[in-house]
Amino acid sequence: KAGLLYFGAATDTPGQRERAPYPQSYAQYDAILNDPSEFGQTTPTNGQKWLFAEPQPRLFNFTEGDYVADLAHRTGKLLRCHALVWHSQLAPWVETTTWTPEELRAVIVRHIKAVAGYYKGQCYAWDVVNEALDEDGTYRKSVFYNVLGEEYIKLAFQTAAEVDPGAKLYYNDYGIERPGSVKTAGAVRLVKMLKDAGVRIDGVGMQAHLHADNHPTAEDLILTSEGYAALVKEVAFTELDVRIKTPVNETKLEWQKECYQKVVTACVKVKACVGITLWDFYDPFSWVPDVFPGNGASLVWFEDFSKHPAYDGMVETF
Ligand code: XIL
Q1: Whole-number Cα distances in Å, 160 to 108, 198, 236
Q2: Is the residue at 149 inside a domain?
Q3: Is 218 contained in some domain?
Q4: ipTM greater than 0.90, yes or no?
Q5: Would 263 be classed as within a structural domain?
Q6: Does residue 1 lie within any of the structural domains?
Q7: Is the CB of residue 275 less than 8 Å from the CB of residue 267?
Q8: Is 150 a catalytic residue?
Q9: For 286-303, how does the pLDDT look when each residue is reduced to its tens digit (9 = 90+)?
Q10: Is the CB of 159 within 6 Å of ligand 1?
Q11: Cα 198 to ligand 1 centre (Å)
């Protein structure tokens, strides 16, 4: 579509999807998901995360991740893989153990070798490190950072590059979509740090969990993307959703449509922007209402499977 490599939607295993409103919803949901004319790419919203992939030391489980990987193959979609090293949805044992630097290095390497090794050749891209930055652009004080400092980021990318040389290696974060922000500056610093160390990084993923009533302009998104593209080969919008403060009304849906359109405009305009991924596509399966009470309707299909104005809005913009 219009110079993009893909337009996709993330999805989850049926057991993880929440609040399915009525039994037919799965069939209707799957029909959209399986339709190659809707989405050409997918990402597992949960299945490949540490909590699921290595819940106990050396106990690897790919059942959840495979559900989405198999769906991608079956329906001819590109697969973005998500995420190798992240402070959240981390297996509890990683956080509760007191590690020496040497031990934690070995744990990270073992995890990446096993998970990226298992999916080798299947992932168009890997989110190698996710959300390593705090809101002020400094490093987040995760167990990884506390024990190893920024070295853990280099180690993760180096290991992923060795294990799956064909996958594009991404740094992925939220709140790094606007050009002037301290967090965007932090992401630029992080990328430069890797490059200065001679460590391979191929892309920056802007999650783009945006707000209908206060969203970046297309120019903002273009400027930010071009900033990253000066350092890495590609950028992508990896977890796009646009939350609305409930109750939903036509005005807010219009703002939402404009926001989705701006992301499309920016990605089409920026040569390095390879694609856009919605963070699921069906409102009842969105993470937004659970995590941000008072917000909802952030995706493009309503509960009754009618489409938000943003759907046609994006189609027109491409
Ligand atoms: C979310 C999932 O969508 C939820 O189902 C889960 O409960 C929490 O995580 N940034 C990320 C994603 O990188 O992995 C998160 O996904 C949303 C924020």
Answers
A1: 10, 14, 19
A2: yes
A3: yes
A4: yes
A5: yes
A6: no
A7: yes
A8: no
A9: 999 999 999 999 999 999
A10: no
A11: 30
